[in-house]
## 1
Amino acid sequence: MPCPEIADNMSSLVDDSLSFSRQVRQEIDEQVQRAPNSNYDMTLSSIIHVISAQYTQNTTNSWVTIEHRLHDLWYIVIQAAKSIEPLNPAQDTLIRHIMLMKALGRLRRASSALSPTIANKGPAGFSDGAELWSGLPLLAKDLTEEFSTYRYYQDTVYDTDKRKNLAAFIGRLLSVGLYDGSALCALSLFRETLETPRPLVADESSEPTPDTQWVIEDLIYPLHHLVIASDFSLTILSSKRSAAVAVTASTVNPADHPHLAGLGELAVQAGIPSSSTGFSPDRWRFWIQRLEELAQCGINHVAGDATSCLTVMQMAQEDTMLL
């Protein structure tokens, strides 16, 4: 058990870290609100530099403090991705920053900078086991939490644009070979869109309004809120057409995340084997079948987005020899 002085110092560091995080997040929220498609270069470059310096040189920062900074970094990236339109080059700039981080490789700490607590962490040290920067620690965790929880089940019923923007960003991550987290997000999106029973469009008599006191967690999104996100994610990815290899290339095992990767109700009813986690051939064929049905649903905006998704998925199926 640490002595009281060390415990007090650690508590103070954590409190300072949380205060700094609140300030950073408030500033980025205000920037997103003020100028959604603004340039985040200086903000990201600055925090990347701070994290690298804290990790390699500064013994006064606990591992918890550095993890807080990493969560702040990914918060900035994710909030920016949600605010930037799919075809805006600023999304590519976000990807460039992440690729530059990864290119820095594994940072090493000088032996004089290693406190016993940090030294005992081993070569990785972060709670997800990833190394800085080669493993982009905590990105997969923060991205999947944001995309799966916030995107589907909380107060985002009116955030169609944010959902679409983030889905396009996921497609970009996959297209440059950044699979950890992003592959699971894409799989979750297809599961929610094509394997989960949903009304095609909202029932105007029951859909909530901003003044309605509904428990949003109980709301079932109509399918048209999600299929357009799938369309943008797939369209961005189609230049590489590598969705089928995304899960196998990821170090994140979909079987460990059944609420994201497990078969949805419609897939189970269709007899898809329970072992078909990931982008399996059986599952891919089921998705195509569902999109074929939706393309004939008679509701123009749903049918149009479904047709666009269908075209890309059929090309991906041919290129990856899934059949």
Note: The radius of gyration is 21 Å.
## 2
Amino acid sequence: MIRPAVPTDAQAVVPLIDIVFEEMEIPALMKLPKTTLYPVFEQAFLLKDYRYGFAQTFVHEQNGRVDGILVGYPHGQEAHIDDAFAPLLPKIGIAQDAALFPDTETYSGEWYVDTLAVADEARGHGIGTALLTGVEPLLKARGEHLLSLNVDQVNPRAEKLYRRVGYQKHGELMIGSHRYNHMLKAL
């Protein structure tokens, strides 16, 4: 079942978000032990307006267990999507005015799929596909017409999944130290 996340999903969702943090190789986060990082991100998950808050998150739940997530938001929120998290940064030894995600990842008119992650033991069972296609009617009902995402160019398996569900490459950009293909799908 795919559903919007709720605050009580925090403990299940944060390790899935961390999968993407590790792939992105964010230096400030890589040096922190999970015992320090996870409680702060669980607290941040409760912030309605934060990039990785419950309000931006959809979960795939099976047998009472969250085994996949899709996090996203409209382009118009990107400029301030991390503001709510800034007061928590000192808890993990990062200055409050630091930007963990300084790069622009979206363009006008897009609803951006920021994060798609599936638990290791659940991979290969169609959960990523279910999340990508399952959120479409929910987003269309909200009035969204264009979805976007960025896929690391060193991850052809993920790009194959995105192409299979209808995304097409429309450009390239740098996010951190990685080059990404920017992909779009009209609803």
Note: The CA atoms of residues 169 and 183 lie 4 Å apart.
## 3
Amino acid sequence: MRTYTIKPGRTEELIRLFTDHGLPLYQKYCGSLVGYYTSESGTLNQVVHLWAYRDVLDREVRRARLAEDPLWRVYLDQSLPLVEHQESRILRPTSFSPTIELAE
């Protein structure tokens, strides 16, 4: 799970950038989107996204491939100036969590 706190008034711009440039790359390399959300209450100006991986090693391998793509650097150069803070968490499912079909 990754949470970005976006500069006020810039959330829609970040979502457009991600939709047009980041999402196609994430889908190519990282595969299984669980959800992509914006905050409506609590801490505002936040974007949260969740991606499913087989395990931590699968995540590392996939993200390393993503980082090697020159288009990813272009996307980061455009999107990172909109971000004030980011936080990442590795979440492990409980025994009763729904199963998510993982992309190859």
Note: Strands lie at 2-6, 32-38, 46-52, 83-88.
## 4
Amino acid sequence: MQKNKQLCTAIMTVGMLLMTACGSSSDEAGAIQNSNINSSNEVTTEEENNNDRVETDIQDNNEPNEKEDTSTSEPAEVEEEATTSLKEKYLQQLDDTKKEAEELEATDSSTYALKKVENDRWELWDELLNEIYGVLEEQLPAEEMSQLREEQRNWIKFRDDSALEASLKFKGGTQEHLEYVVVLANLTEKRCYELVKDFMK
């Protein structure tokens, strides 16, 4: 009986020891697990902090530097154009074209060379006339433009008739065509000045 009692006590003691050992192990495991969770949280928090720093750096780089001049100053030419009216611009262009036309020279004294110079001169003025007319179409009110259109048709007829009449003085001669083109160029130059001075704003 005494032996049974001692055996029971021994078994209980061993059982208690085992339970204590198991409880301690599970506490240690729990502590280790908690430690891992905390470490994981620390890593995550550190990663988040690093990400925040990177985002802040990116934002800082995207913001304009206070020392940099971010204002876009327009070139002086654009400002000058804004203060210059179309009329002034085209008056200057007329003078430039006149100078260019006067600088045209024949390669020799033949009628063919002279005709080429006058033809080039007429083309310069005719091209500018068409440009001026296009600007006026945009500038003028519909009723005023309608009157100008009619006036321009009459002017073209006058120009062609005048050139033909002048050329007939040299009918059949080498000067006939030359005179025709000379008159076309002169009248077209004059008309360019009239349109700019009288109609352009």
Note: The radius of gyration is 49 Å.
